C-alpha cells in the first residue's frame, strides 16, 4: 500500500531538496535563498528552470535526468503530490533538482531578477472564470518578469483548448516572440530529436487526458522584460469536457 498523506508530509519536512513556504508562513519567514539558489543550493552556475504547478514533478525530474548541466525547481502548493518527485530525485541522487511548496501568486518572493532562465507550465488549471488566476495571464507574466532572464522562455503544455487559445491571444496581442506552437503534439511532423525527447516526458494529468483521446497542445514563447503587457479582449469557447476531480467550470459557452 502507498504512503498516507501524513507520512508524506513528515518525509517532506526532512527532505533536503524541499523548501516549504505556503501562504501561512511566507510572511513570517524570510526566504534567504532568494538570489542565492546557485551558491547555496545547486553549487554551480548552471541555468535554473522552473516547473510551475508541477504536481508530482514529472517534468522537473525528467528534464533533470536529461540535462545534468541545468538546474530544475518544481513548484506547487500540494505537498503530497510533490512528494513523488522529491522522493524520486533523492533516490536517484539528482543534485540538480529542488522542490518549492508555495503559492505561485507569490513566486517572485523566491527568486531575484534574472535568476531563472525558463518556465514550464504543465497542464495548468485553465481557470476559465478568472483571468487573474490563469498562469499565462498578464498578471502572472508580470510576476515572472521580475525574475526571468530577458526574453526567457515560457513553455505551455496543455490539454485545454481554452487555455491554449487564450495564451495564443496573449502572445499575439502583446507581440511576444512565438518560438513554437502545435495543437496536436503527438501528430506533428518535423520535430527535431531533442524537442521530441523533451516533449515525450508525460505527466500524471497528461496521461489521463491522452487516455481520454484529447490532443496535447504545446507552445513556447519568449518573455521580454520591458514591453507593456495587456490582456486581449477576446471571447473564447470554453472546454466542453470536465476536468478530473473538478466540477464544471461554467455554464457559459464562451469566456474572456
Ligand atoms: C492540473 S494539475 C497538473 C499537475 C502536473 N503538472 C501534471 O501535469 O500532472 C495543476 C497543479 O497546479 C497546482 N496549482 C494550481 N494553482 C496553483 C497555485 N496558484 N499555486 C501553487 N500551485 C498551484 C495544483 O496544486 C496542481 O498540482
TrEMBL record:
It holds the Pfam family Methyltransf_4. S-adenosyl-L-methionine binds at residues 51, 76, 103, 125. GO terms for molecular function: tRNA (guanine(46)-N7)-methyltransferase activity. It catalyses: guanosine(46) in tRNA + S-adenosyl-L-methionine = N(7)-methylguanosine(46) in tRNA + S-adenosyl-L-homocysteine. It comes from the Bacteria. Keywords: Methyltransferase, S-adenosyl-L-methionine, Transferase, tRNA processing. Its EC number is 2.1.1.33. Substrate binds at residues 129, 159, 203-206. Pathway: tRNA modification; N(7)-methylguanine-tRNA biosynthesis. Belongs to the class I-like SAM-binding methyltransferase superfamily. TrmB family. PANTHER family: 3-DEOXY-D-MANNO-OCTULOSONIC-ACID TRANSFERASE/TRNA GUANINE-N 7 - -METHYLTRANSFERASE, PENTACOTRIPEPTIDE-REPEAT REGION OF PRORP DOMAIN-CONTAINING PROTEIN. HAMAP family: tRNA_methyltr_TrmB. Catalyzes the formation of N(7)-methylguanine at position 46 (m7G46) in tRNA. This is tRNA (guanine-N(7)-)-methyltransferase.
